């Protein structure tokens, strides 16, 4: 188990929240924060900001998982991460685009990291929740983590427990859950 550096996290958070910076710079810092958390987990390796051959899709973070017992053993070998450091909730069309990236690569799991939630209603499966539910019926699971979720994890054990709990939530409910 690794304890995350409060200094590193606070530095990245300051950049994420600094409205004097360009949106792209704040978004990259948000990705860097999530990569920092992932890179400390045993058995995970990340690659950031890769474009496909046609320059039509960018992958924020691709993750290879060797499934170590003290890491994310129940996660698939490969999964993708999309980070949205937006001032508004992420909408269903953005979620649909992320699901398309998963489908185009035959990737089972996507992790969406959001600063300010998603649109819709989990009870009625409206908007973003509907897109995620439909994706699961086609073999693609989508979990969502908020910035608040990330800040609650001070160790790799807490972070992996959060990720596993969210994955279980998707399996049980049929769509992602924000707690």
Automatic annotation (TrEMBL):
<dbReference type="GO" id="GO:0003677">
    <property type="term" value="F:DNA binding"/>
</dbReference>
<protein>
    <recommendedName>
        <fullName>Restriction endonuclease type IV Mrr domain-containing protein</fullName>
    </recommendedName>
</protein>
<dbReference type="GO" id="GO:0009307">
    <property type="term" value="P:DNA restriction-modification system"/>
</dbReference>
<dbReference type="Pfam" id="PF04471">
    <property type="entry name" value="Mrr_cat"/>
</dbReference>
<dbReference type="InterPro" id="IPR011856">
    <property type="entry name" value="tRNA_endonuc-like_dom_sf"/>
</dbReference>
<feature type="domain" description="Restriction endonuclease type IV Mrr">
    <location>
        <begin position="27"/>
        <end position="132"/>
    </location>
</feature>
<dbReference type="InterPro" id="IPR007560">
    <property type="entry name" value="Restrct_endonuc_IV_Mrr"/>
</dbReference>
<dbReference type="InterPro" id="IPR011335">
    <property type="entry name" value="Restrct_endonuc-II-like"/>
</dbReference>
<dbReference type="GO" id="GO:0004519">
    <property type="term" value="F:endonuclease activity"/>
</dbReference>
